[in-house]
Amino acid sequence: MEENNKSYFGEVFHAVKSLATGLKITLKEYFTPKSTEQYPENRKTTLHVSKRHRGRLVMLRDENDAVKCVGCTMCEKVCPNGTIKIQTEMVTTEDGKKKRKLVDYQYDLGDCMFCQLCVNACNFDAIEFTNDFENSTFDRNSLVLHLDKEHYESSLPNILDGGAPLTIGKFNTKTK
Amino acid sequence: MFDFNIVTTWIDMFLRQTLGLGDFLSILIECILVGVGILVGYAMLAIVLIFMERKVCAYFQCRLGPMRVGPWGVFQVFADVLKMLIKEIFFVDKADKLLYLVAPFLVIVASVGTFSFLPWNNGAVVLDFNVGIFLLTAVSSIGVVGIFMAGWGSNNKYGVVSAMRGAVQLISYEMSLGLCLITAVILTGTMQVSGIVEAQTGPWNWLIFRGHIPAVIAFVVFLVAGNAEANRGPFDLAEAESELTAGYHTEYSGMGFGFYYLAEYLNLFVISGIATTVFLGGWAPVNIGIDAFDSVMNYIPGIVWFLGKAFAVVWLLMWVRWTFPRLRIDQILTLEWKYLMPLCLLNLVLMTIIVAFGWHF
Amino acid sequence: MKLNNIVFDKSSFAAEMAKLKNAGNFDYLVTIVGEDFGEEGLGCIYILENTDTNERVSVKMIAEKIGEDHVIPTVYNLWKSADLLEREVYDFFGIKFLGHPDMRRLYLRSDFNGYPFRKDFDADPKKNPLLLTDEPQSDYTVEYNLDSEGRLTSTPHRLFDDDDFVVNIGPQHPSTHGVLRLQTILNGETVKKIYPHFGYIHRGIEKMCESYTYPQTLALTDRMDYLSAMMNRHALCGVIEEAMGIELSDRILYIRTIMDELQRLDSHLLYIGCCAQDLGALTAFLYSMRDREHVLNCMEETTGGRLIQNYYRIGGLQDDIDVNFVANVKALCNYIKPYFQEYMDVFGNNVIMQKRFMNVGFLSKEDAVSYGVTGASGRTSGWHNDIRKNHPYALYDKVEFDEITNEMCDSYGRYLIRIEEMKQSVRIIEQLIDNIPAGDFYIKQKPIIKVPEGQWYFSCEGSRGEIGVYLDSKGDKSPYRLKFRPMGLNHVAAMDQMMRGQKVADIITAGAALDFVIPDIDR
């Protein structure tokens, strides 16, 4: 504990000076550029979302529009929350071999905690996270997705690669 | 300078002579007109002030403030008012129903009461007593009772602590407030609000110029004490949202809360208005003693001058409010009793000496 | 650190522990780990540190069984931090500490049935249904002792007097920074006593980890102290990697060190802001929040998260750094440096702030060590407790930085240390950012990770203290017992002593200056 050895008036002077410094700073900031980014007005223009942001899981498709998933259930096993449920069936191919075929790939976005373990576990690069973050709905059931059935299209294709450029130290407060 | 007396006299004449109404009826109608006028002005100003606070606060904080409702967010406050009007008013279990219900009205009565003392224009003063300044401080004290009753009546521990704080703080700061006003009054020699403003017309006649050093000190102390009276940061101890959630109005919803909200902003305006009236010449225009300049200034109506000055002071108070952290209750009292009060008393003596020897301008 | 437990005899335990503390100068009780050792029975592992030499030892004590009860003599009288730590063990394992004056549950409801961390705990939801009723609260607490014939006796103690004015600060309170409940006895505006209550956001992370595989346990760490997500995960990865003997590449170490410091910058910026906000200076709060945004932007480009970073994994990192990472971080360092002075100007040097922070929440060095108040909050009492210096990990023994301490012992000192630490973080980042070596960002691991048998303890310097992880492995793919040392528990434990005789408004100040995050305490 510091000894208080300032005089009555010295203390008053110090106090007033510190208060004036504070006022000076806020007055300076009154005229500096602002930091509010105007979402959702900017969602198709100046919005930046990191490319690596984990918005939701999507299934990748090859050039024939077929999913790469083979139904090995590695992702299902590794998921801590039981978010992924996979149904497969054994089919016999034309040359007589038995092969596992994906019937249903159910992903519950409402349960997902975006730990990325499923993507790490996948040996076929069949799934990945996309930065599409506008996933709110009025009904929890609509968060249960069947990734192999849906043909995913982002509601914001402009942000898939990050959107507007990001500059550290600046905010884009404009909507256009 | 436009004299608002022309309008009031014309209305009076219209009622008495053209319509031939008697004393009772014409005074009744005039009272109603004035009352409605005050309430409308009160509500309009509240809306303007709330919007101003939100934008000014946002700009100090490097934000844009409301932007969504209407262009540049101008309709935000209307949306807020609408929301507040349709909110459910609920009662707290075991609350003291009477105190709980009456408290917001006392606060709003005090606020409207002090509001009525403001001189809007030459001849446009609603309550103009010969002890106007005294009465004004007396009316403003009713608010303390409202705050205390609200805190006590709503059966909430935070509310009680807040009520105690509010009462202690407001009663303390009334000392400085009164002393500062008296300091100014010494110069004008009258306590009548219209008289005080009247005395400040003419070049360099605002009290803050005429009284120079002591008047400036009194002005600054008045703003500090006024800020405390209006319960605004850094003296918003009674509300202290980070300590006592919302203090005495924690348990209010709907218009009950709305009254406190309104009163807070209007008290801010009232404090600024009084500071303007007493120190910055009220509706008196800027006159510097050069005829050409002065006559141009005199063309601008008094109400514009008054509102302009008052809002400048409001902005100043907002600047302070959005810069400083909150004090602790014992520190607030220390500030008042150990620093501001002695300063005010000294200042009063100084002013008396200056006036007695005629050293003022 | 691989633990080599000292075992004392049951009868001499209390005396030997006192000897360790007084003669051996092991005055810092790092943590008490309760554990169900299976055949051996229930017991505790005490991890102790000598604050002069920074040597650490661990003591293992198996609880004595008296009828159905398990008992251990308390060490409450030796280390003040044992107060809440022993209550935690009692809560989860049902070990009764003899002589502890306040044996109540700490996290779970007082009407909870059973002790969930025992291996034979029946997790049937019917035994403990979700209750929507109020938790029964007694005005009494209990102390257990053995009488002369070796039977367990209980003595009730009264918590409140009849005319005490009790105010609950929290669990729903804007300034407890989460759902902490401080049951405060007031005399006017003066604080007489504080009883902290936890558990409002207790998720049983340690229990969940026992059924998770090692990679899965990582997913939960970011959700404890979300403001030191990187360090939490660093500690858990660290203990697993140490146990498995994984050698990391230099690139991983560089990136981890930079990320830890960015996270510290992020957390301290929030701290600086919250101190201001708790005093009603919303403007100062928003200035540091604005600058924190840039720190988060830097991290998000690489990690993909702002709060839940999810970046470290066993054997390295989730992904390589973003192409713009180096440029962004350099821009950030240049941007942020002038602002430290601005925070001081607008808030830290303000006379109102100083009046409210100075001499509030006084904690002497002795008490800071005894309560185990680590991090910047303890360093203001002059205690050199920086894990980065005392038990270096990652690159902290290679970079130059100062351990900031002062002797102010109060809230203002805690604030100043944070400001200086941010400058040190920037200094560390600037030393590393230009020299990130090429190499692997991930050392490939087997699909199923198994940790060899043994007990390990590893700690990192989190944003607000020592975040430690104790791991007991039986060689399986899941941990046998995983215990996190929360940073904030000790801070809150010390609040009672700090706040006595001060004003109720000071609780807010001291709490803000101590800096705790509730999900970290509750886990």
TrEMBL record, chain A:
Keywords, alphabetical: 4Fe-4S, Cell membrane, Iron, Iron-sulfur, Membrane, Metal-binding, NAD, Quinone, Repeat, Translocase, Ubiquinone
InterPro entries: 4Fe4S_Fe-S-bd (IPR017896), 4Fe4S_Fe_S_CS (IPR017900), NADH_quinone_OxRdtase_chainI (IPR010226)
Pfam families referenced in this protein's UniProt entry, alphabetically: Fer4_7
4Fe-4S ferredoxin-type domain ranges (all copies): 60-89, 103-132
Domain of life of the organism encoding this protein: Bacteria
Signal sequence segment: none
PANTHER family: NADH DEHYDROGENASE UBIQUINONE IRON-SULFUR PROTEIN 8, MITOCHONDRIAL, NADH-QUINONE OXIDOREDUCTASE SUBUNIT I 2
This protein's name: NADH-quinone oxidoreductase subunit I
Biological classification of the source: Bacteria, Pseudomonadati, Bacteroidota, Bacteroidia, Bacteroidales
From TrEMBL, chain B:
Membrane protein topology class: Multi-pass membrane protein
EC number(s) given by UniProt: 7.1.1.-
Iron-sulfur recorded as keyword: no
Top-level taxon in the UniProt lineage: Bacteria
Enzyme class: translocase
Catalytic activity: a quinone + NADH + 5 H(+)(in) = a quinol + NAD(+) + 4 H(+)(out)
Family recorded in the similarity comment: Belongs to the complex I subunit 1 family.
Record function comment: NDH-1 shuttles electrons from NADH, via FMN and iron-sulfur (Fe-S) centers, to quinones in the respiratory chain. The immediate electron acceptor for the enzyme in this species is believed to be ubiquinone. Couples the redox reaction to proton translocation (for every two electrons transferred, four hydrogen ions are translocated across the cytoplasmic membrane), and thus conserves the redox energy in a proton gradient. This subunit may bind ubiquinone.
Protein name: NADH-quinone oxidoreductase subunit H
Organism per entry: Xylanibacter muris
Gene it is expressed from: nuoH
TrEMBL record, chain C:
Protein name: NADH-quinone oxidoreductase subunit D
GO molecular function, one term: oxidoreductase activity
Gene3D superfamilies: Cytochrome-c3 Hydrogenase, chain B, NADH:ubiquinone oxidoreductase, 30kDa subunit
Database matches in PANTHER family: NADH DEHYDROGENASE [UBIQUINONE] IRON-SULFUR PROTEIN 2, MITOCHONDRIAL (PTHR11993:SF10), NADH-UBIQUINONE OXIDOREDUCTASE 49 KDA SUBUNIT (PTHR11993)
Domain NADH-quinone oxidoreductase subunit D, first and last residues per copy: 278-446, 449-523
Subunit structure: NDH-1 is composed of 13 different subunits. Subunits NuoB, CD, E, F, and G constitute the peripheral sector of the complex.
Domain NADH:ubiquinone oxidoreductase 30kDa subunit: from-to ranges: 9-125
Reactions that this protein is recorded to catalyse: a quinone + NADH + 5 H(+)(in) = a quinol + NAD(+) + 4 H(+)(out)
Membrane topology: Peripheral membrane protein
UniProt entry keywords in alphabetical sequence: Cell membrane, Membrane, Multifunctional enzyme, NAD, Oxidoreductase, Transport
Compartments reported by the entry: Cell inner membrane
EC annotation from Swiss-Prot or TrEMBL: 1.6.5.11
One matching Pfam family: Complex1_49kDa
Similarity annotation: In the C-terminal section; belongs to the complex I 49 kDa subunit family.
Organism: Xylanibacter muris
